Each structure stands twice: as C-alpha cells, then as structure tokens.
Amino acid sequence: MSPGQRLLWAYGGLSLAAVGAGCAIAAAHGVPVGVWARDLAAWILGLGAALLLTRVSRPTVYAACLMATPLGLALTLVSVGLEGVHRWTHLGSLRINMAEVLLPLAVVALAGLGRDHRWPWLAAAVTLGLLVAQPDASQATALAGAMAVMLVAGRLGRRVQWGLVALAGVAVVAAWSRPDPLQPVPEVEQILSLAWTLSPLAAAGAAGLLLGAALTPWLARTQRAAAASGLGVYFLLSAVTPALGAFPVPLIGMATSPILGFWLGVGLLAAPGAKRSTP
After folding, report:
1. Phi/psi of residue 247, each to 5°?
2. For residue 255, how far is the Cα from the chain centroid?
3. How confident is the model at residue 258 (pLDDT cuts 50, 70, 90)?
4. For residue 153, what are the CA distances in angstroms to 35, 105, 131?
5. Can you give the residue ranges of every domain in the chain?
6. For the chain, which terminal residue's Cβ has fewer other Cβ atoms within 10 angstroms, N or C?
7. What pTM value is reported for the model?
8. Tens of pLDDT along 145-173?
9. Distance (Å, rounded) from C-alpha 164 to C-alpha 26?
C-alpha cells in the first residue's frame, strides 16, 4: 500500500469516527437531525472530491488552488458579514467558510510550487492579509504555522525565508488583535464542552479522534515531506485554536466547511503525481 493510500484509509476512518462522534453528541443535546446530518453529507461529498483529486494532481492544479484561495477569501469581504466579521459566502441557505474549504488545498499546493518559485509565497502572503481583514485568527494562525514549517525546510534564500516567517508572525498577531465580537454556538465551537457534560470519557474520545485525524498527513511524509508537514501543522492548529476563541471545532463541531476542506487537502496530498515535489 502506497503512502497516499495509507493516508486515505487512515484519515477516512478517523475522520468518519470523529464526525460520527460529533453528530452523536449534538443529537444527545437536542440538535435537530437536519443540522448534524449535514456533517455526514459533507463527509461523503468530501470523500468523493478527495478521490477525484488523487487523479488530477498536476502543477496546473496547484497553481489554480493558489490563485483561487485569495480570490475566494476576497469574495467574503464583499458579502454580508456577521457583526463586522466576514468569513463566509452563501450558497443558498448554506454559509460556506471559504478559508476552511480552500486553505488545505493551498497549503499542499504551496509545498508543490513554493519549492522552486517565489510567486506562490506572494499568494500566501496576500491570503494572510485577507484573513486578517476578515478577521479569522484561527485560520491565520493555521496558515502561518504551515508556511513557517515549509519555509524552514525549503530552498529559498535565508533572508527570504526568515522575512516571510516574520511576516507570517506579524499577521498572526494582527489577526488576534482584531475585534471579533462573535459569540460561540454550543454545537459548533463548544462541542467538546457539550461532550464533557455527557461524560469526560466522551469528551476525551472525541478529542482523541480529532487529534488522530489531524496527525494523519504525516503518513505521507515519504511521498511528500514538506506538504505532509505543512498540512499536518495546519490541521493541528485548526483543531487547537477553538480553545482560544469562537472558532469551529473541525470534524466534531456542526460545521461542514472544515469537513470538506480537510478532505480536499488530504486528497491533493495523497495524489501519486505529487511525489516529485518532495524536498
């Protein structure tokens, strides 16, 4: 079994268990079926998209991902926000967090193209600026962490590397400094607290499943070292930052965007054609 196949199987099993645990927690607290069932539907849709991505991975796909990410985030700034916060675009009755959907793809694409070119890092820097403008401290932190890991292991000149790392750090500080008046929704941002009220064991189990799913990108390190590390750091920081603010808990919380985004990142990372970008 190839590293990509191991990644798909491991992430698929752990993420499905995490999503299922979140649905069970939500249902136990009276959250309507129509809300938590969307997470299961998003997991199935994400799986299908990930399988397609394993077949189409090419440098042109990486370039498209890197260009689509800042464009998608820019759309959120002109859409209707919530209390001055602009993180979403609307698809019918659904609110889509563009950063959570697009950033996993961008991280993998950045590792694929940023090794030999400088323009992808400019796209990443613009994306960080848009995350500060939204503001979204969670996603800014996750992207900055992924960038730092890939920059340190990359081939860019030392001055460029550390200059970009410093820029990412400044963006993170700026994002956390922006006013963010949104209040947490229990089944979205506080799902682990709801699990704790059921049982400490339930909370620990759900958190363990989330952590396990977040660690799976490292299974692809022999195929794509930089991308695996970058995506793994992005996953981990996305999972940790909800403890610091009103941000969706990925996979477990009642939010479809991170479920889709995580699958897209895994699919692109698992693509066999990506091995040439290994440092």
Report:
1. -125, 145
2. 12
3. very high
4. 41, 19, 24
5. 3-277
6. N
7. 0.94
8. 999 999 887 777 778 888 999 999 999 99
9. 41
